[in-house]
Amino acid sequence: MPDATRHLTLANGLHLTLRHAPRLKRAAAALRVHAGSHDAATRWPGLAHFLEHLFFLGTERFPLDDGLMRYVQGVGGQVNASTRERTTDFFFEVPPAALAGGLERLCQMLAEPDLSLARQVSEREVIHAEFIAWSRNREAQDQFALLQRLAAGHPLRAFHAGNRYSLNLHNPQFQREVRGFHQRFYQGGQMVLSLCGPQSLDQLQAMGERYASVFASGQRVIQALPPALQEQPLVPPAPKHGQLDLLYAHDGLPAGAQQAMELLLGCISDSREGTWLDALRQRGWVRECQPKLLYAFAGQLLWTIRLRLTDTAQVDEVRALLHGWLQFIRQADFDALNAAYAHLQQRRAMSASALELAQRDSRENPLQALDARSLQALTAVLDGLPLQAYASWQLPPADPLLLASLPNPTAALPAALSVSTCLPSSRQYAALYLRWRIATPLRQRLHAVLVNALRPLTERAEQASLHMDFSSSGEYWQLRCAGFPAAVVRLVEEALAVLNQPAADCWQAPVADEPALIPIRALLKRWPDEVAIAPTAQPDTAGVLDQAILDQVWRSTRCRGLAVGFGEPELAALGSAVTRTIWDEAADQKQSLDASTVPGKRWLYADVTGSEHALLLFCPLPAQLQGAGRLLAQLLQGPVYQRLRVELQLGYAVFSAFRQTDGIGGLLFGVQSPHVRPAQILAHLLEVFSAGVTLDTAVRQALADNFDEAAMPDAEVAQWAWQSHLAGAEADLGVLQAAILHTDQTSLDALLTALITAQHGWLCLANSPAPDSLWP
């Protein structure tokens, strides 16, 4: 059944967009305020971002421990906000029954915030911590330097992040500006609220009308127009460390240009045969291509293409090929382009989450083909680019990954490919997990070659709303393909062909340098490898890799896997698609370590980039305690955030959750701080644990309800089934729900004691060596 939509304007001027999508298991709200960092007085850079932060600190009606963030986290949802140049967005996704409670809190916190000086003083330090991280992030600084090529008077060149010095809290004029900004822009006429979920349009409308009426009435404020983006043609910087940034600016474009850019960026990132990116790859010049829209407002567009090139790339020829490809697009049949785009958008709409749909509706950019206005804008965008007739091009045929039909050949599934019934095939979402044990010390180098070889297919999969990753953890390689079932069958067949015989140029091409991650994200990337404590062969960095070596690896390893969410026709086609790999026909074997075998306390030093301190604390649990562990993680989430993020202001990156990797589950805590060392962070965490938790039966029930297949997002069901398979446990959501519901206060107290004493083990992963006195 297709989605149904409705648009209306409330008495206070707020525009309400409603979307009834019966296939969804979750509901979402996205509220866009047409005001951002460029709308604040230039004397107070960061004011709009600062105000966004203040909204989340609680109000008289909903204090912090019952505010939007705690509420959404308590029901297993997600929530965030973002301040851009001319807009500020607030959004959350929750189980459908929790939408009303979340919406009430969202509207109330924006309409009647607590802007007291005490709140501002504490939150300014968080803003300053974000500023420090931003100032030390190479990618962020590269983009800031790129923006300095714009016209001198354009606000994109200026500083808008905010810090301890730009937010002069004790200046009466600053306080007037904060309240004036809120009064001027946080009113009905300046807002678009989008609600999306399986509820009927009438139910969604009733919620929107009830809770959004709290906003003051107003009319749309005309935001000040910026000066021109460019005074003369932009000159991009020269390539640096293999990175080339191509920058393009447009002024005076007609309405619909932002939607048109989405189609154009898709053409630029298309790597199929006959395209520009394919031409670069055939020459062995490009490692990675990232086109991105940086800015869109009042007929202005600014966008960039970030290229990571090989040493042999000829930069002038790269530009010439791009301009030739753009000229070809300009002369192409726009109706044919739009028809292919419509097909792609249709697939994306089928796969999109409630949050994605709500956010697109709030941006007035739903997943659909370009209308007549946007097609005209596409012409204007292309006419403003440096076009030239150069090289020979062709539009690629329809991508097989977008076909709804199944391949014809069928075969029986291998015995080593298990089938999970956790997810009904009626959900139209399937996931396939394949796993190989690779004992050779060449494992890491070979994995890098294969990731490079898979990159074009990974990009195509992403375009088609499929998810594919080929990861390495300990001694294992793992391939995951997920999305629309028929497309997953086609995707895995192509992926296995590449893995067995990568293109010849992939062996010679150096591995692309990955962008530097902030410390906490770098630790999260390392975490799965460190959890698997089985001894592994030391990596071999010498010698030349070739196809013969890879052939030997594939001959000597065996595959096991899990299929989730496939119907009988898809399983028959899948049997044929996986014939390229050798399967493990031996008796069922447990492929991961049980959490109970993890030794006591381990502190591992990870030498990652970044100057801020970061710590991950992982507390694994045996399978029989994971129901209680999930409840404990849920109950600790608020106190950890309150103590470390709000009261102690250790930094802006503070999180806690229950996580699983390689079949091992447990509680994971993470903190990044500009001024507190990892050992001190650990001490603060232990203080929170020692304070204990109190069982909240409502939280317990809400958590159990989230593990009902009918309420659990499809991707989470599939991932849970895979982790259960790795652990050798029965994948039964009913058993997990019962374990959660049977957890009482005594069970929680005992588990918390075990956590504090590391009874089931600790893994501390930090970017500093272990202190002399390791355990405070």
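The record above closes out task 2.4. Task 2.5 opens with a second protein, given below.
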Amino acid sequence: MRRLVAILFLISAGFTFAQNGFTHGPDQGIEQSYFDPSLAPFYHGVASGDPLEDRVIIWTRVTPAKDTLVPVNWVMALDTGFQNVVARGSYETDYTKDYTVKIDVKALQPNTTYYYHFSALNKNSVTGRTRTLPGNNTQHVRLAFGSCSNYQMGYFNSYKKIAERNDLDAVLHLGDYIYEYATYGYGYSVEIGREHRPNHEILTLDDYRIRHNFYKLDPDLKAAHQQHPFICIWDDHEIANNTYETGAANHQELSEGDFQTRKEGAIRAYLEWMPIRHPEFTGDPKIYRSFSFGDLLDLHMLDTRVEDRDQPAINVQDPLFNDTSRLLLGDVQRNWLFDKMDESDATWRIIGNQIMISETGENDADMDSWTGYPYERQLVIDKLKSYTDKNSVVLTGDTHRSWAFDLSEHPFDGTSYEPLTGQGTFGVEICSPSLASPNRNESNPGTSQLPDQMALLVENPHLRYVDLDNHGYVILDITDLKMQADFFYTETTVPNSTKDSLARSVFTYVNEGYLQEALSAATGKENQMIPAPSTPRPYSDSTPTLGLEQGSNYFLSGVYPNPSSGQFTLGLTNNTEEVIDLKVFDLKGRLVLDKAMNIPSGNHKIVFNLDKESKGVYILKINSKNGTLSTRKLVKK
């Protein structure tokens, strides 16, 4: 009765207060049958990402049997037997992080393979394999890249084949890692019958968490993450179709709510569930970043979707089309990119992005791609042309097709561009097929690939290779002499397919800036890394576990969103039932909120509002009878 009175008090006081449910199980959108009990509580495996010369992110997700604060230990070694341990540590996770764990392991050696695992709830995760980036005097880098993996469209055999390669420095994912659609929506194949969870189109933070949760239960995706560090960037479907900064093509405000709220929920879930290094999310989604592979190449991963993308024009007649204030990257990101490229001494500059910069047809602009933003596209072209070399390589996802282009400002002018010599070029563009999203023939059943491909090749002299109908990925092999792209195609209609066929190889020599066909795939590295084992190591409780600090009954796991337009959510874990005081002050010391709450033991979400206060910075203080528990800065925007 006392707890009931306390909860009624909270509601009457203008607070909402609830324990968080798990993002799994039949009542939460994912049936238990999708969870392999032998992997509990690490059902989602492990992942690593954003490697640098001296550090790398490692990631996992713990699924406890009840809602609680979970102590997690991690260890990293040079061998699969963990005889040569180089780093270890502890962490705590709870529902405010959706029970995800993300560690930035530092003080590592460059160009080195490491193995790692996590321990929690008296169990070990599977072992993961990762690798730091090379330093100077690098002679050979191999990357896999792909995009567009719609679970409903087919099986993730491309991920499986990528996992089996043992000489990759990293895997690049260029976006559409998940899809937001409802079961039976876009990409659903009756032949395959793979259904999304939750079944409805995802709109809320919990929805996006469940969808990420569900995708990472796929065994082939787990295998790829287990064996390789990923470098990822989002596209539109991590949020909604054809996303731009303030909206999306398939978001309806009247029926689906505020787009900004949806976008922030999607971004928060992405940052929780992906092995990506990022500053604390405060509503500003800056995830563009660079990676240096010694003096051989610099990789710049761009955000052409969310950061500062203006609404697309309707068509070329739309007055917005040539509006010089309408941007795709935005001034801040574009200047960052130009500065990074200017600072680089690497042989190759590689840009990873979502949408094609090349034209596919004279006077034919795609409103969703770079050609739909002609002003800023020209700024980027002018910048790439300004370099005396021709060693710019643009990597692209999104189209669900394979493309390989020479980059030329005037590809349809025979006096300006010459395909056989590279006259008039400034680099090349390689576009990946979809990992498992509808291709041309699946979107338009009954179409014939060969006539369409021949027409495209005839119409576009700068187009050196195209395939409209196959799924797969690209291996990028880079030396100081040449860059080669090998297109590999896999099967998506059956699980565990052994198909992994080389379709085409194209390359460009250093400083030449045009593509030629290679007779065979690039030779892999002589040194093959030892794969991470497929089963978890036996558990040992010799490593001390984390808990709440001795003598403390509380753990404040965070306040989010922060900044907020008025509503804040406080995550709090306490061991004993207690009365706490929640106070908020402005910077002049004025008390703007003061509430006492009697809360039971457990994990809690406490929602409070500063709707009536002006924009600015506030200080949150949480006190108990034992003194001040914690202080946090709040920003109302």
